[in-house]
Write a structure and sequence with these properties.
- The protein has helices at 7-23, 26-34, 40-48, 67-80, 86-92, 153-180, 192-218, 221-246, 257-270, 274-284, and strands at residues 106-107, 111-115, 122-123, 131-133, 142-149, 182-183, 186-187.
- By secondary structure, the protein is mainly alpha-helical.
- Strands 2-5-4 form a 3-stranded antiparallel β-sheet, with no helix packed on it. Strands 1-3 form a two-stranded parallel sheet.
- The chain starts with 6 loop residues before the first helix and ends with a helix.
- The mean pLDDT is 92.
Length: 285
């Protein structure tokens, strides 16, 4: 079985990246940090581009693609650090009116957390007893639930894809900084310690990418659990290592890497607990 992207999938990836870079660049990201909320115009543009209807049959007005293509698209969303309940709205397409077109913002609890409750038009699932809590991620408002809600396999995988995209982005940021920043008359990337950090980040990203892409094809719950754990590690540890490569400036508010770390922490909980994924793998063994 081959897990390499097809020419059409690469075109989908590149087109999504171009769309997001043009519509949600760094200035837009920083504006979203200063004024949190769902950008309704952007949400509709994503709907018009077919993001939410990607897996709907063409007979129902969708794009007619599959979960592997959705993973490719959500990887780019994670790379761009796009805010909003993307996963819940995507999974609601075809079931909630206006979700596929981006006219309706949908959220749902996956695990013990409910993001974007007050900004959504539709809240799915049992949210009784939800209470607002402080979020580590300044781009994602949160409510906590007294009892964890079930997490669909697709939601777990799409969050893993977003983690993968974020891990790839923080790797790129670290490598670029290592090339540009000079100490003692040479780029810091020439120093062995920095080389090792970047190499370890690359290994984690590529392992996670292979696992996430494969799980999108097989839909096997055990492989999805493994992909989720590898993607969580790639995103969280990768952002930490990127902070180290950036040095003191990496810990400042102006640097974007801390936003990726905070979102990675949050996503690691939104797709259900890591312990749950570990239990799935342990049972399979």
């Amino acid at each position: 079985m081959h897990f390499q992207l097809t020419e059409e999938q690469r075109a989908l990836r590149d087109g999504t990246r171009d769309l997001l870079e043009g519509r949600f660049d760094r200035d837009a990201l920083r504006a979203a940090v200063d004024r949190p909320g769902v950008d309704r115009e952007l949400w509709r543009e994503l709907g018009e581009a077919g993001l939410f209807a990607l897996c709907l049959p063409e007979a129902e007005g969708g794009v007619g693609l599959g979960l592997p293509e959705a993973v490719v698209v959500f990887e780019e969303c994670g790379r761009a650090l796009l805010p909003g309940p993307l996963v819940a709205t995507f999974l609601a397409a075809g079931e909630v009116e206006g979700a596929a077109s981006g006219e309706t913002v949908v959220t749902a609890p996956y695990g013990s957390l409910l993001p974007w409750r007050d900004a959504a038009d539709v809240v799915r699932g049992d949210t009784a007893g939800a209470r607002p809590i402080a979020s580590a991620d300044p781009l994602t408002p949160l409510h906590a639930l007294p009892e964890p809600a079930p997490v669909p396999l697709e939601a777990t995988l799409l969050y893993a894809a977003e983690q993968l995209g974020s891990a790839g982005r923080t790797l790129d940021m670290a490598v670029q900084h290592a090339r540009d920043r000079e100490q003692f008359g040479q780029p810091i990337g020439a120093f062995q310690a920095v080389k090792h950090l970047c190499a370890e980040m690359l290994v984690r990203v590529e392992l996670a990418r292979a696992a996430v892409y494969a799980a999108a094809v097989t839909r096997d719950p055990v492989e999805v659990a493994a992909a989720r754990l590898l993607a969580d590690e790639a995103a969280t540890q990768g952002a930490r290592d990127s902070l180290q490569v950036h040095g003191g400036m990496g810990f400042t508010w102006e640097a974007d890497v801390h936003l990726h770390l905070k979102r990675a922490w949050l996503r690691a909980e939104l797709g259900g607990s890591a312990r749950g994924a570990e239990e799935v793998l342990a049972a399979a063994l």
